[in-house]
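Quick note —
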Amino acid sequence: MGIDAAVALLACPTCQQPLTREEGRLVCRRGHTFDIAKQGHVNLLGRAAPQNADTADMVAARARFLGAGHYEPIIDALVGRVRDARRVVEVGAGTGHYLAGVLDSQPRAVGLATDISPMACRRAAKAHPRIGAVVADTWAGLPVRSGMADVLLCCFAPRNPVEFARIISAGGLLLVVTPNEGHLAQARESLGLLGIQDDKLAKLNRGMAGAFEAVWSQRIRWTMNLDAAAVTDLVQMGPNAFHEHGAVSEQMSVDADVQLSVFRRPGM
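Predicted structure written out below.
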């Protein structure tokens, strides 16, 4: 299915008209066209990806790390909050790992993965048969038709409350995963990795107030016993890849500590 699974959710980034599938491309009624890449994704960004977009090496590291199951407690928590969804969107989806996990629990749902990295979208397009993947910028406006998402996932990704409120249906859910202060503390301390923003959860709640109702919050903590290769992937799969850090030389026990915040779009 691929992009066919999600095309009904998509809007033209130029004129916001619905997109439909033609041979090898998506097209809107005003004639704007967007080629479907041979890897299965579609670039709806309309410009070159920024220099800080995830690289092929970063995406490969994330795929190895997530594929090894190190973050499965996050998927378990997401799945526990989703019921009878038909249309699930993940922004900043990266490899599409979290979205694929949710779709496995929702046999009637289709999924749309968006990310500003073309390399990430290549991987997300193949993460699940019911995922369509598009290159898009959450801050610039998502190429998604209004009110089309029953559930929106945002895991360690940029947030745009105005756009989220626009694309989530009345009564739909927004699931946000953010790191708590103690997340990856051992790795951050020993390797000199980037810190975590202060008061992150409070800022999230303030940002969503008005457009959403907070309905659930769950702290998720577990310990990962990582060999040196997994620690290297952990470092290289995110923003730390763009910064200087200590050398990885041995296995490490690392605590994960994240928050799942669930918001509901008023209505119904």
